[in-house]
């Protein structure tokens, strides 16, 4: 009989081979809020790990350990970038309002990769739009997807 038919899905050998999550080669710039989110994720995972160990859930333990390796690496490499009050050009941490060529106005904050969530207006600093916006001033026009957008406001964001 093949071992595939006798091994339980929660067998240690079956879960030891979980691949690590890929860590970006880009510098790990974070806002102060981004660092807090990383630390909160680590705390949450440590709690989940204790529970999974108590329940002898080897699959969960392996998955959580993999995620903890990722988040601990991200915390270790995190470089908090302070906002620049009163800056007149777009930089990491800026909150930028753009007006697209179709008239839509959108507000984005330039943040770290793990903090990014475009649906909430949080753009990773390595995203194409954030790269286009870097070092731009009010009135500058940038490529934004298939069209263009004008920078209409730059604000200092709160961490």
Number of helices: 4
What is the overall silhouette?
Answer: elongated
Beta strand %: 15-25%
Output the radius of gyration. 21 Å
Number of domain modules: 2
- Spatially, the strands of the biggest sheet line up as 5-4-3-7-6
Q: Average pLDDT value?
A: 90
Major sheet details: 5 strands, mixed
From the N-terminal CA to the C-terminal CA, the straight-line distance is: 59 Å
Number of DSSP E strands? 7
Q: Can you summarize this structure?
A:
This protein is of the alpha/beta class.
Describe what this molecule looks like in 3D:
The structure is a single chain. With 159 residues, the protein is α/β, with parallel strands linked by helices. It contains 4 helices and 7 strands, in the order αβααββββαββ. The strands form 2 sheets. The protein has a 5-stranded mixed sheet. Strands 1-2 form a two-stranded parallel ribbon. The radius of gyration is 21 Å and the shape is elongated.
Give a quick set of tags describing it.
159 residues, alpha/beta, Chitinase A, domain 3, 2 domains, five-stranded mixed β-sheet, two-stranded parallel sheet, 4 helices, 22% strand, elongated
Write the layout of secondary structure elements.
Blueprint: H1 12-15, E1 29-30, H2 32-54, H3 58-77, E2 79-80, E3 94-100, E4 105-111, E5 122-124, H4 128-133, E6 141-144, E7 147-156
Parallel strand pairs: 1-2, 4-5
Antiparallel strand pairs: 3-4, 3-7, 6-7
């Amino acid at each position: 009989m093949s071992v595939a038919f006798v091994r339980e899905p929660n067998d240690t050998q079956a879960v030891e081979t979980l691949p690590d999550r890929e860590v970006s080669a880009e510098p790990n710039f974070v806002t102060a809020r981004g660092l807090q989110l990383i630390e909160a994720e680590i705390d949450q995972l440590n709690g989940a790990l204790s529970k999974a160990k108590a329940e002898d859930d080897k699959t969960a333990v392996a998955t959580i350990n993999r995620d903890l390796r990722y988040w601990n690496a991200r915390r270790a490499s995190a470089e908090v970038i302070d906002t620049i009050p009163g800056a007149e050009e777009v930089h990491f941490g800026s909150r930028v309002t753009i007006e697209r060529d179709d008239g839509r106005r959108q507000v984005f904050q330039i943040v770290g990769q793990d903090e990014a969530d475009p649906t909430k207006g949080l753009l990773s600093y390595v995203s194409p739009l954030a790269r286009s916006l870097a070092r731009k001033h009010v009135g500058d026009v940038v490529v934004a997807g298939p069209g263009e957008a004008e920078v209409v406001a730059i604000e200092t964001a709160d961490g």
